[in-house]
Amino acid sequence: MKRGKIGEKIAIGAFVCLLLAGCTTDVYEPTLEPKPKPIPEVPKDSVFDFSMESTYDLKIKYDVPEGCRVPFFVYAENPLSIDEYGNIILKEEVKWVDAGFTDLTGAYLEKIKISTMTDKLYIYTSFPSLPMLMVATINGKSISDPEEVDLTSKVETKSVLRGATSLSGKLAHLHTLGGWKGNGRPDYLLPEKISISKEALNTINKILPEPKPTPEIDNYLIEGDIHVTEKAHLDIYIVSTTTGAHNLFGYYCYPTGNPPKDANEIEDVTMIFPNSIVNPNIVKRGEGVRLHYYEKGIDKGTEFPAGVSIGWVIYNDAFGLNPSLSKYNGKPIYSTSTLNAKREKFMASFQINGFVVIGFEDWTNQLKDYNDLVFHIEADPVDAITDNIPEVKPEPPVMGTATVDYEGLLAFEDLWPRQGDFDMNDVILRYKSVVTYNHENRIVKLEDTFKLLWTGATIRNGFGYQLNGVSRTDIGVEGASLDNSQRMAVIRVFDDALAETAHNTQTPEYTVTTTFFGDGYEKDPMILPPYNPYITPSLDKEVHLTLYPPTEKAKESYFGTDDDESVYGKGPYYVTYSKENGEQMPFAIHIPGSVEDFVVPAESKSIDSYYPGFLNWIQTQGEESKDWYLHPADENPKIPVE
């Protein structure tokens, strides 16, 4: 943006000529005293911060019983896809931009720092009985409340189950418990949804985790059928699904002790859910159905006699909402393992304080995590079905940590407070960082790798960073120097870029590990990478990102002098305007994300002439040309940077 009348600019011809010559060769004598000028009044809201990131409040609320802490991940793009078999796949190549834990009521409210090019956030969790994916939209300076993403396909009009009360084709022999809508929502659902305790949810999450099975899963792969030991009514409730397949789910009965030896011996199969996939418009979590006892084709009512066993059957993707996903080949998956090829087991079962859970794998050639469909079976009386089901003693969940990766590029001009040539190549670094949070979303560890890519100056610049708001005594540092003379945490990485690069013949790396003592620090964007980075052309001179404050060691007399418009003590800091076009220009810039293809402007080539979109980005206060750094002018010479 163009500068206004912010203080009088003082220029002496001979001095300016010397300065311009120094900018061309990046030769500067740090001992020269800055030229003082009147302290300007710079309205902070008129200054562009050159930031390619924005900070928002992210609010999440999951419907869980008190005592459940939900882990989640935040993505800048949809991290899920559905493969040809209907499996929901978490894309490994898509990296999360944030992660954390809710409090014990399922609520979360923290700051999130993300790229200005992000317009949506996707919140993913594998915690049972919750929306696997929600999406929030960025509107100006706020984020909308997250809404559940429909992971299912649109209804195909030629489904084999289009009839509202009966079945056709290969499924015509199944009994039904009532009618259903065109999308598969039954009209015979129970009026009340089930409530699931925190103990049950935490145990389900432990035994049936997504996406890989627990090593203990074999303990729960008993014969999956339910045995009724006394007269009882049976209800089945859907807890969660982690599949994209539109499975038909049903059951069959047989005398206990005399299971069918093959599918032809099953006399009666009854459909429970035509389309057993959790969806706000199809079946909601916690909704259930009361089962009927069929014998020789006759509905005997809702009371099951003692001595009857119940097996379960899945017709994979039989609802056929999307022909490209439909792989149903007439070979159902049974809980009675003798009915499956190679006696393969597809069901896990266990109980928590009498709360019976059954989990299914819905495809024959996939990793068995047994959480594609998870149900709760409830009997009245409760003890009528629990004899053969393993009991799991609920334990408080072991709360782990969450990690978030950051990366980006830092570029500095070292002639501050005088204007340089704005080629932004005096010191170039790439960083990759990992931030670790505990279960209360407090920062407990920082792991940073800095790679010094280039130094285009003859000044021996040092590099470091400050953790704004963090006391020096609250951290321990390995791999770099913690400045013990300052109250705030200031970390020095190196002192001489020229020596470190051996005059640009090497690209050294530095690994720094910072550990927070005690319970760590509250999540704060200023304690997130790249922190408050700066270079030091001399011991008392620091060059920071625009608006970022200096450390205690920076010499006050430099600020607000020569071409700098800083107001020491209250800000703004590191503000200057180009003598060529009057636009605000940076002394340092941060480009977040993977910028492997970024090429540094050649020596003395101003970044705004090298990148055509740079000035428009400034003039629109960052609203346009947000990807300017991806589009250099081809005709300009470049400095190759590894």
UniProtKB/TrEMBL annotation:
Query: Which domain of life does this protein belong to?
Result: Bacteria
DUF4114 domain segment(s): 304-379
Q: Could you tell me which residue ranges the DUF4842 domain spans? A: 441-629
Coiled-coil stretches, from where to where?
A: none
Short name of one Pfam family: DUF4842
InterPro entries, alphabetized:
DUF4114, DUF4842, LruC_dom
Q: What is this protein called?
A: LruC domain-containing protein
Q: Can you name the source organism?
A: Parabacteroides distasonis
